[in-house]
Amino acid sequence: MKKFSLEHNARAQAIYGSFWTFFGFGGSQVIRLGGNLVLARLLFPEAFGLMALVNVFMQGLQMFSDLGIGPAVIQNPRGEEPEFRHVAWTMQIIRGAALWLISCLLAWPVARFYSGGHPDAMMLFQILPVIGFTALLNGFTSTSLFVLNRRMKIGTVTLLELLPQIVSMVVMILWAVLIERSVWALVAGGVAQSATRVFLSHLLEPGYRDRIAWNRETAAELVRFGGWIFASTVVSFLVISLDRMVLGRLLSLAELGIYSIAMTFARLGMQITTRLSNIVLFPLLTKRQHQPERLMELCLRGRHLVLLVGGAVCVAFAMLAPLFFEFLYDERYHAAGPLSRWLSIYVWGWIMVATLDRVPLAMGRTRILFQTNLLNVCGMGLVIPGYLLFGLPGFILGLAGAQGIALLYIIRHLPLDRLKALRQSLLLTLFFGGYGVLGVLLLLKLSASSTMLRLCASGALAFFPLMGGGLFVLRELKRKKAGS
């Protein structure tokens, strides 16, 4: 009876968490799309190119400002003890201050590196120290955010992510309209978002307050868990951002801006997969970290549903992207549409890896996660030959190839069910890949047809996988509910 109650509770938590994840994801994308459309009319592609370089370092500093503290609070049995949380918060602040100092030191060499081909990139010398300040701000984020995640209070966590994003978008638009139409609008929005998030995080647990504290044993425990996560975070940053770092030297700022906009929307599948993995799947897996059989069973079952949704999103995006950019953006950005089709291949590879890498993390085997990400970075050596042979599409295929190498490595190091995971990956790749290729070939033949015909064909080709994936997920949820 106890086992039945635990399993039923886990299913209820997963459904509840998934609902809030999709709600948060949808709200976030509406905010992002609305703001992006407004900013695209206020700014030029060259400004988005400079923003892409700025985003590389903003993203890196945001990733480095955690360094495993959040997962440690979620995973560790002592994660809710005040002493453990105080030490974790203190270490988080120290790291945030160090990252701000590093951003100041890197500002000049980074600006000089990119200004060789783009003189406007010298603005990075002024921008990076300001952006680095967000790392210091993020260091003061309350551990209450991690504790609520641990308790699966997904609704509160989701709202805490949406509200700062709204504030950020409002600040960016107002800055561009009232002060200056430049990359400083993005910088101001980033600072506003971090400050709002930190402020709200300290209101989550009335009566609790983080404070500066130190305990050698607790700090050592956090370092042991977070050491490999720190290394993995550094490598993860390269996995996510190396494309823009390299393309910043290969493309013009206008071309880089178009690539960045295309990637922003191509990453929809990546973002929802990340949220499902981190907020829903990871906390559930940690509760079975000492039961490898149950852990893998739960992982593969949940992964199947996530891959169906992610694959449907990738295919739908490949079908609709050209018309999306043609209708909603002016002609300066239309090249982002065809480019997005190639990016959907890379995103699918990323989703397949992201749906498995929470397994070693849940089991405390953070070194495997680091090695997987490191192999992914090394595999990116394929992008330069790909670019030289086939241009930007070849570059993107090189990114996808690196994801394939990382996927094989992480499957090799799963505790159980390696063949099941491999078979699951291959079958769904063949299904969505075959459907996507046939759909794109059909749309290319219709490229000279009327807009209405192209719209109907694109919508139909996008609708079927989305409908099929949605119906399958609903069937699974109903089956589990009936079984409970």
Features:
484 residues, mainly alpha, single chain
Give me the secondary-structure topology.
Blueprint: H1 2-42, H2 45-64, H3 69-75, H4 82-115, H5 124-139, H6 144-150, H7 154-179, H8 184-201, H9 216-250, H10 253-266, H11 268-286, H12 292-328, H13 336-354, H14 358-362, H15 366-379, H16 383-390, H17 392-412, H18 418-445, H19 451-483
Q: What percent of residues are in strands? A: under 5%
The residue-averaged pLDDT reads 79
Give the termini distance in whole angstroms. Answer: 12 Å
Task: Please state the overall shape, judged from the principal axes of the Cα atoms.
Answer: globular
Q: Could you spell the SSE succession in H and E letters?
A: HHHHHHHHHHHHHHHHHHH
Helix coverage percent of residues?
Answer: over 70%
Helix segment count? 19
Describe what this molecule looks like in 3D.
With 484 residues, the chain is mainly alpha-helical. It has 2 domains: 35-234, no CATH class; 267-484, no CATH class. 83% of the residues lie in helices and 0% in strands. The protein has helices at 2-42, 45-64, 69-75, 82-115, 124-139, 144-150, 154-179, 184-201, 216-250, 253-266, 268-286, 292-328, 336-354, 358-362, 366-379, 383-390, 392-412, 418-445, 451-483. The longest helix is centred in the first third of the chain and has 41 residues, at 2-42. The radius of gyration is 22 Å and the shape is globular. 46% of the residues are buried. The model is unreliable at 1-11 (pLDDT under 50).
